[in-house]
Known about the structure:
This protein is mostly helical. The chain has helices at 5-26, 45-59, 61-87, 97-135, 141-165, 174-194, 196-207; strands at residues 30-32, 37-39.
Amino acid sequence: MKLDIGMKTNILLGIFVGALIAANLIGLKIAEFGIFQASVGILLFPILFLITDVIEEVHGKKKAHEFVIIGFITLIIVLVVTVIAVILPFAERSLVKDEYTTIFSTTIRIFIASITAFLIAQFHDVWAFNFWRKKTKGRYLWLRNNLSTIVSQFLDTTIFMFIAFYNISPKFNVEYIFTLIIPYWLVKVLFAILDTPFCYLGVRWLSGSKLNIKKKSN
């Protein structure tokens, strides 16, 4: 079955929302990545910025904003359901009561941090991508993709870290939070650079052409 641009766009929207929810659900685990430690959610967040850049390149700023708003609404729904699930009393036959409450109560603060960081960073990414597209007259996709994503990832990491972890214990002061922010951000910068070929492939796949796309600034 040949996919038209509408179906391809819907597929990217599904991946976008799925990656967003998954990153928040699994993000509590800190894993060893050889030379650094990081939340496993770091594997998924670069996908979000990549998809919005691809969508904006092909469809324009308005459609990219729609992706962000849909993602935001989805996170709000997940947050509300999570809060309700934690508040509801356990039945006698429930298992892992304490573990469930501990994990999902922590997840509530993480979700709030993630929602706030996601919304601000993604709107900045869409704005910055459009800004650099105008400056470059629609050329240098690799430059626009990286400039917008690198700054947006810094905003995302900084906002998330402060809301999620600031003052959870005396250790988590401003100085310590920034010692967490910088390594995370640098890893995200590396991922942003490495995903540049996928941005070109994504644009080509979605548009069905070799980047012969009518540039949009809406």
